[in-house]
Amino acid sequence: MTSQSAKDGGFGIYVHWPFCAAKCPYCDFNSHVRHQPVDQDRFAAAFERELTHFAELTGGKTVQSVFLGGGTPSLMAPETVDRILNAISNRWSMDTDAEISMEANPSSVEAERFKGYRAAGVNRVSLGVQSLIDTELKLLGRLHDAQTARNAIEIARETFPRLSFDLIYARPEQTLDGWAEELNQAIALAADHLSLYQLTIEEGTPFYRLYHTGKLKMPDPELGAEFYELTQDVTASAGMPAYEVSNHAKPGAECRHNLVYWRYGDYVGVGPGAHGRLTVGVNRLATSNERHPETWLENVERTGHALVENMGLSEEEQGDEFLLMGLRLNEGIDLARYERFAHRSLDPKRLKSLLEHGMVEEIGENRVRATREGFFVLDAVVADLAA
Predict the structure, then answer these.
(1) Spatial contact of 293 and 328, defined as CB atoms under 8 Å apart
(2) 242: how many CB neighbours lie within 10 A of its CB?
(3) What digits encode the pLDDT tens for the residues 133-186?
(4) Are 153 and 189 contacting, i.e. CB atoms less than 8 angstroms apart?
(5) Which residues pair with 101 in a beta bridge?
(6) Total number of domains constituting the chain
(7) What mean pLDDT value characterizes the chain?
(8) How far apart are CA 166 and CA 127, in angstroms?
(9) 315-346: buried (b, 16+ CB within 10 Å) or exposed (e) per residue?
(10) What is this structure's pTM?
(11) What CATH number corresponds to the domain at position 191?
């Protein structure tokens, strides 16, 4: 990102493709399985219409990043991706080095299809690998095996300038030694970016039911903290330190789109269930769309958008969100920028107390960030600063 876009948070566009081949037992994302083929031509036309609606609200902005997420965007035909990306570039100015990211599952990776995405303009892919061990992939409900994942990584590296992939750790019965070995394998396969998430039990998922009936045993919080410490140490020593709680990259290889979120920039969200944050005039708006895919489609066809929420955020809400997002980053937050959102300063007594207890630290002039100890209780740190 340019220094100017980093200063104001930047501007990105998130496109949500809601369909998956199967629903993973730990996933609470807005994803849906359809047993009949999806009418991609009709959905692409709806994306074009909804993008038009948001372009009218945000005209004049320059797009630094586009993120095709889901669901499983790699179930889209390359022609569908091409239509969506053309719709964006025809409605906004694009940075000359705009990052165009796309999520993909290893089971849906085909070399020819990847070439089609690259031709459409995708220049960064994020693979949902989740584990490099076959038995663990079965536990996680994934449709691919470890060799398929390795093949997908190889195809992605050959096709795209930039590559990331996800792994989930702190899994049932997992040991620290086992995770260290798997993580080192991942680092050897990775180009310059890894997303590493602790397994969490989300309400409404099959894992939630198994956990609460005693059929799924999770690591206790103390062991979870050890997994996190190990993850930070191994990645840092390999030259891929955390730049955000769960994201690791070589310097300069950070995901620009996610930085827009964490730097509290503006972003359009299109597609079923997509969220956005937009500055329109003097107002900062929170937007969210209808979650059900076919209902979203009908609403867009009828009215040009499928917004179910489009509300102005108060100064206090903006300040709270800025803290919640920015303190996830290793670069921390600019206190002057917080004051512009919240129209107040942080309470000096609360800040001093958190500094003395080693939960946050000052970095340079007028910036603070959470320490590693602070990351373990980040919600509490944010709540204390926001009070």
Answers:
(1) no
(2) 21
(3) 999 999 998 889 999 999 999 999 999 999 999 999 999 999 999 999 999 999
(4) yes
(5) 67, 124
(6) 2
(7) 93
(8) 6
(9) eeebbbbbbbbbbbbbbbbbeebbeebbeeeb
(10) 0.93
(11) 3.20.20.70
